[in-house]
Amino acid sequence: MVHIYFLALLPLVQAAPAGAAASLLQADKTFAEAGPTKPAVEAISAMFAADVTVPAPGNVFVQGKARAIEALQANPDNLTGRVEWAPIRVGLSADGTHGFTFGYMTLTKADKSTVPLKYLA
Predict the structure, then answer these.
(1) Which of 28, 35, 25, 26 is nearest to 106 (CA)?
(2) Which DSSP string corresponds to 11-51?
(3) Is 98 helix (H, G, I), strand (E, B) or coil?
(4) What's the pLDDT tens digit per position in 25-77?
(5) Burial, 3: exposed, middle or buried (Cβ in 10 Å; 0-12, 13-18, 19+)?
(6) Burial of 79 per CB tally in 10 Å (0-12, 13-18, 19+)
(7) How confident is the model at residue 15 (pLDDT cuts 50, 70, 90)?
(8) CATH class of 2-120
(9) How many secondary structure helices (H) and strands (E) does the chain include?
(10) Rounded Cα distance, 11 and 17, in Å
(11) 83 pLDDT exceeds 70?
């Protein structure tokens, strides 16, 4: 009988992570829609939390929004270029409290050349 109750509750447990995944994907899509109208640094950093950690030049990681923005600004293309991205998938912890998105990004430089990228956010 315990197994029957467990199975009956299983759809309720799954609903929360599914809703969280949809919400996370929609948030990324919303940022992506605004991205092409802004310089790359501004578009990308709009998604950063105050305690963000990102890889930086020199094979290091930096913590904090201000340092993450400085790391992005180290590449001149990020200052004058524009980015477009499209999230294609969400990864989510079993309890729905931690997640990430990933997808494809294109950096359009000031000279109009493009650089294809992949991202994980």
Answers:
(1) 35
(2) HHHHHHHHHHHHHHHHHHHHHHHHGGGSBHHHHHHTT--TT
(3) coil
(4) 999 999 999 999 999 999 999 999 999 999 998 999 999 999 999 999 999 99
(5) exposed
(6) middle
(7) low
(8) alpha beta
(9) 4, 5
(10) 11
(11) yes
Tally of CB atoms within 10 A around 68: 23
77 vs 39: CA distance, rounded Å:
9
Q: Which residue has the tokens 């640094």?
A: 41
Question: How far from the centroid of its chain's Cα atoms is residue 85's Cα?
Answer: 10
Helix (H) or strand (E) holding 84: strand 82-92
- Domain extents for the chain? 2-120
Pull the structure tokens for residue 83: 């980015």
- Could you tell me if 38 and 82 are in contact, meaning their C-beta atoms sit under 8 angstroms apart? yes
Average pLDDT of the residues in 12-22: 70
Q: What is the pTM of this model?
A: 0.80
| CA–CA distance, 118 with 105 (Å, rounded to integer) | 6
